[in-house]
Amino acid sequence: MSVTGKRGVGVPVILMHDGEGTIVTVECKNGDMYRGFLDETEDNMNCILKDVTKTSADGKKSQIEHIFIRGSQISFFVFPTMLKKAPMFSRVRTWRKHRGNPPKGEAVKGQAAAIIRKAQARQLQLKSGVMPIR
């Protein structure tokens, strides 16, 4: 799993994958709400729910055994509070802490090196009080 999003997978998608096997609520763009067991998710936010209670936009409730919800139709998810302790959040904190520092013995290359050099030069300018005129 990528925390940095290099493969196009960001934090919300990782959270969805971590939420598999829990009870979630999904609201769709048309106003319908689905509450059920999150069985499977995909990187494009498509998901499969089991044992679902559907609440339509007009307030009618119905039971559904299985449902596939297309990711482009999802407005938002409500996850259980236990996902605050999801391992993904500790990976994000670790990544943010060390993102500018390569592991010992490894040099940063390419675009990452240019970004780091530019940030370091900017910090030196701020410390010295000399700002370039643009």
Automatic annotation (TrEMBL):
Its main location: cytoplasm. CDD domains: Sm_D3. Pfam families: LSM. GO terms for molecular function: RNA binding. Residues 11-83 form the Sm domain. It comes from the Eukaryota. Keywords: Cytoplasm, mRNA processing, mRNA splicing, Nucleus, Ribonucleoprotein. GO terms for biological process: spliceosomal snRNP assembly. One of its GO terms (cellular component) is cytosol. It is found in: Cytoplasm, Cytosol; Nucleus. Belongs to the snRNP core protein family. This is Small nuclear ribonucleoprotein Sm D3. It comes from Chrysophaeum taylorii.
